Every structure is written in C-alpha cells, then in structure tokens.
Amino acid sequence: MSSAGTRAPGMKNDYRARNHPAYWAFIVHRVSGLLLTLFLPLHFWALGQAFHGAAGLDGFLAWTQHPLVKFAETGLVLLLAAHMSGGLRLLLIEFLDWRERQKSLLAVAAGLTLACGLAFLLNLV
Amino acid sequence: MSQRSEVLLWGAQRVSAMVLALCVVVHLVTMIIAVRSGLSGAEILGRTQGNVAWFAFYTLFVIAVSVHAPIGLRTILGEALGWRGSATNLLIAVFGVVLALWGMRAVFAVFGGGQA
User: Fold this and answer.
1) At residue A2, what are phi and psi to the nearest 5 degrees?
2) Which of A12, A29, A84, B116 is most buried (most C-beta within 10 Å)?
3) Interface ipTM above 0.95
4) Which CATH number fits the domain A21-124, given the four candidates 3.40.50.720, 2.60.40.10, 3.30.70.1520, 1.20.1300.10?
C-alpha cells in the first residue's frame, strides 16, 4: 500500500485521480455551492421587493417570464438539488460510514438532481 | 485559527447542512407547487404575509444558510486562492452577518405583517 511519503511525484495531478466519479462529485459540490452563495444576495434582494406590496413583486415576476430567466431558474433548481443530494451523500459517508456504497450514492445523488430539475421544468412549461 | 475553532466550524457546517437538507426539500417542493398554481404578487403575499409558521421556517432557513455558506466559501477561498488567516476569517464572518441580515429582511418582506 502506498503512503503519502512513497507516492510518486506528480501522482496528485495524475489524470486517473481526477477521472473518478467522486472527483467530479467534489467539483460539482464546490461549484454549485459557490454559485448558490453568489445567487443568495440577489434572491434576497428580489424577495425584498415584497416591501413595495404586490405591485413591487409583480414587476419582478414579469421579468422572470423571460425565457432566458426561466432557463436560468431551472439551472438554479438543478444547482440546489445537486448541492443538496451531494451534501446528503457526504453526510451519509461521514456519519454512517457508507464508504463501500460510494458509486451507488453518486448515482442516487445524480438521479435526485435530475428529478428535481425535470419536475420544475415540467411545471414551468 | 486554533484546531478547536476548526473543529467547531466543521461541526457547524455539518449541523447546518442537516438543517438545510430538510429546508431545501421543503423549499423545492413548495417552489414546484407554487409555480404550478401560477405566480402573482397578490397570490404569493396573500398566502405568505402574516403566516407565523412559514416565518419561523424561513428564519431557520436563513440562519442555517448564513452559517453554512460562509464556512463553505472560506474552504473554497483557502483551497483555490490560498486565502487563509485572520483577514479572510474576518471577511467571512462579516459576509455571514450581512447575509443573515439581508436574508431576514427578505423574510420580513414576504412573511411579515404587510407593507412596511
């Protein structure tokens, strides 16, 4: 078994280490978390339009009818679902030690994400 | 930052994640149902304003996300940009407080008693 001390130089950047579903899950979790964090202040600002009553909120809702905004909304739902299911996967691995089921958990997380995105999209159109 | 503080942040990240998992499921389901039944400002505010249960739920949501997101951002800044140390920690703490206040403003706007 190799340890950190005996690992070949450059192994950390070996494409095999990156070409693994768990690595892509790590990237998806980081990217979705970052994008959701950037989105939150905008989301809170939009909801704050309710201080101007129904008319204030309607002005914003009219803007959300734009096809591009609807497309972005679906993307946000996918990001949220991906971050949640990926986070649940991490909690199961850390607290219930479900390490041997890594790939099954990844598949479930991906499935949940797509299901949420589709449910939102089907309601939207 | 001391090891004890790092462990506390790790714990806060995990506990807030557990709360958020529940909140996000409820939020996603509510959002999908809300979109289905049509969205207008009057309809939304008619359902939400003065609703104490939803006010409490979204207050919990905002608190949990204001703990979870800054800690995650701190990890990303450390990993991707090498930003570690007291200045980054201060920046992250300020971001967390501003996010919580900004989020609570939204909760009051949607679930509070009415027009301010």
Assistant:
1) -90, 145
2) A84
3) no
4) 1.20.1300.10
